[in-house]
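Let us practice reading a record.
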Amino acid sequence: ASLVHILEELGIGRPSTYAPTISTIQQREYVKKGDTEGSPRPYREIILKDGNLTAADLTENTGGNRGKLVPTDTGSVVNDFLMEYFPEIMDYHFTANVEKDFDEVAEGKMNWTKLISDFYNQLEPVVERTMKERTDHKAGERLLGTNPADGKPVSVKIGRYGPLVQIGTPEDNEKPRFANLAPGQSIETITLEEALELFKLPRTLGEHEGQTVKANSGRFGPYVQLGKLFASIPKGEDPMTINLPRALELLTAKKDAEAKSHLKTFEEDKELEVRTGRFGPYIAWKGKNFKLPKKEATRAAELTYEECLAIVKAESQKKKK
C-alpha cells in the first residue's frame, strides 16, 4: 500500500498498472518479500521522577522491516546500470510527463506517432552510446581477492540465474569455476573467505542403494540429491553440516509426497495423468495442467481416460477464448 501511495504521489502509472508493475519486478526477481535487519542506535534516556534525575545509555534497533519488498542483488545491479546509462529516462518526472502525454493522445490533443517518434529520437542515441561504452567488466562485478590454492582471481557478479562467485577468468587455460551464493548472502557484502567456502559444495554424504547422496546449493537454495531425486534443505539447516541420515529423511519425505501427488495414469497415453497439488486435483498432459471442474474434482482418482480427454478438450477451448 505504501509503494502504491508513492507511485500515486509521483504521478507514475495508473490504478490499472500498479499491480502489474509490482508483479513484474517480483517475477523478474528484482525484489522479493523478506525481512531487513535494523542497525543498533545508541541513545540516552533521561528520567525526572520525584525530583530525582537519572540518565542511562541504551541502544535500540532501528531501520528493520518485516515482510517488505526488498531489492535483490539482480535488482540492485539492474537499477545501478540504468541509473548510470539512462538517467533521464529513470527520472521520476520523465514517467509522469509521459503519462500526461498519453492523456493528451487519448483526448486527441497530440498525435501518437509524434509522441513515439520523439521518444525514439531521444532513446536511440543513448542506446548506441551505451553499446559502445560497454566493456568486458560485468555490471555489478566485484573482485574479492585471489584464491590461495592457485592464485586466480575470485569475483562475484550476476549470472544468468542470479548472483554467483567465479574463480578464474575466461582467458585462463582452465575454464572458470562457479558457485551460487547461498540464501542470505549478497554480492555487496560477501567476503573472500565466505566465497571460497561455497566451492566446498557439492558434498558427498555417502551411498544409498548404490547411488551417491550429495548436499549442494543452487538458485533456489540448499538441497540434497539422490540420483534424479532432489529435496530442499529446510531453513536453519546447513548443506555444509547436514549428515547422511538427515538427508535420507528429507529425500524419503519428498519421494512419499511425490507418490501421493500421482492419483492415476493411463495405459492409452503415458503423458496423461491425474495429479493433486497445492490447489487440489488436476490433469497433467504434455507439459500442461488442466483444472478439474468441481464435480469431477470430488472423484479425481476414478476418472476414466475418456473423461480426462473431454476435460482437456473443454479447458483448452476455454483458454483460446
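A brief commentary: The chain has four domains: 2-35+65-133, 142-199, 201-260, 267-320.
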